[in-house]
Design a protein that fits this description.
Radius of gyration: 26 Å
Structural class: alpha+beta
Strand order of the largest sheet: 23-24-26-27-28-29-32-33
Mean pLDDT: 85
Shape: globular
Largest sheet: 8 strands, parallel, barrel
Distance between the termini: 30 Å
Length: 570
Amino acid sequence: MKKRLLSALLLALGLCLAGVGTGPVPASARSGAVLAYAAWAPNTWYAVGTRVTYNGTDYECIQAHTSLTGWEPPIVPALWKPLAGGGGDTTAPSVPAGLRVTGTTSGSVSLAWNASTDDVGVTGYQVYRGSQLVTTVAGTTYTDGGLASGTTYTYTVRARDAAGNVSAASSAVSATTGAGTGTPGQPGAPSVTGSTDTSISLSWTASGGTVTGYRVYEGTTQRAQVTGTTATIGSLGVCTTHTYTVRAYNSAGESAASAAVTGTTTGCSSGGALPRHILTGYWHNFVNPAVELKLSQVPRDYDVVAIAFGEATTTPGQVRFALDPGLSTAVGGYTEAQFKTDVQALRQRGQKVILSVGGEAGHVQVAGSAAATAFANSVYSIMQTYGFDGVDIDLENGLNATYMAQALRELRAKAGSGLIIMMAPQTIDMQSTGMEYFKLALSVKDILTVVNMQYYNSGAMLGCDQRVYSQGSVDFMTALACIQLENGLRPDQVGLGLPAGPGAAGGGVVSPATVTNALNCLARRTNCGSFVPSRTYPDIRGAMTWSINWDASNNWNFSRTVKPFLATLP
């Protein structure tokens, strides 16, 4: 999103979500020919681990997707990671032998098999129920639960190696679950079907076997007991988050717990005293072709000013911040004391000042509990030092939703309910709820202020109607915002992030009027393009721009257009 000294061309290639994968197994590790992978092609479904060749370089898929023209592997590192060398190991592992049934209940089948005989590089085994891939396990046993009683199931197993090669299927085995004896099968994963200020409603898929009823648990505490597959848990606090599991029961006992689901009661208010609709802008703590500014030169139009950026130290998770000497020189001298005074001056006139962590070149990594604590402690210390009101998560090199959520909750515990928490994911990061950024946003929804997704430097993307839209249009903004609005985020937690004008980004630069049209479409269903949302979102939070400095370079056209418009929204 935000560059320092890199060109606009590199900005256009800025999908920087880091992938994690395993390199190819050398051919010497086992017998077999070394062949080239299939050529990458558009309009093709690619599963995680699939390997392709593009322009002489091998790539491995790190996020499942349907390819599109403009999403070639070197352009979208969020989807593909390059592999060292050319060609790939395509020798499949040997077929697992000895698949057998080791036990059954009324709702489960237990299996075991022998390891692949040439298991060098084998990383796991895929278990199929009929033609359906059920799971991939590291060992050679698996229990398939949540099955219907008195039903026959057929299984096969395939070995998968580190290079992504999958063996042929093993010989099939069949097993029949018990007919109504024993404890019930595991219920299906519950989902949150509604919430109020004091209640959360759930539903789930029925268990197999004989079922008397279902019990809903929060941790080890039973919260509800019902005979059907829905429940409402009441007497909860306003804007509180709760995690539930469900167990089926009968006279023989309880089933295994379902997968967990987390829900939040309504009535949330986070981020201190902010207007109903806000304009957020980034302030450069570095020198690039945009206009350099002291913080005191930021106009009042910006409700939130994000200081770009806090950076990584050698300690995992730890963040540091200091005024850039190059910037100080460029503006004719700027001391830390003057900067701190300017922060307080903005706050006194009603603006919020937050620290943005990461950026395109930032590599802050929070991948464990210790790193999460280091992040919370260091960011809180910076907030105390400079008087910042919160934090913006702008990590464009990947994040771990679990540990970043821990970090933000620890920071919230230190800073209190006035803490502003913003996020600036790239478009690819919010294409589905399975993406780490989206998971993070949903997991901290109760304390999250707003997600200002970057609607630029992305190429074409899918909207919530599964149609492809090109950046730089009202449809692109509204159809992609719809994904967030219809998949768990409140409208007041969704903002539109756009470049402030020419020079600010390599792609997706639009006129400020296009931004206001998109906001009008979402809030009122007027000024839309071909995509018209199914309902209005009058609480849509507002807009973000990269950046205040680029806005200054373009005669303040963005803020002078968008800020007055926000005051007209419902």
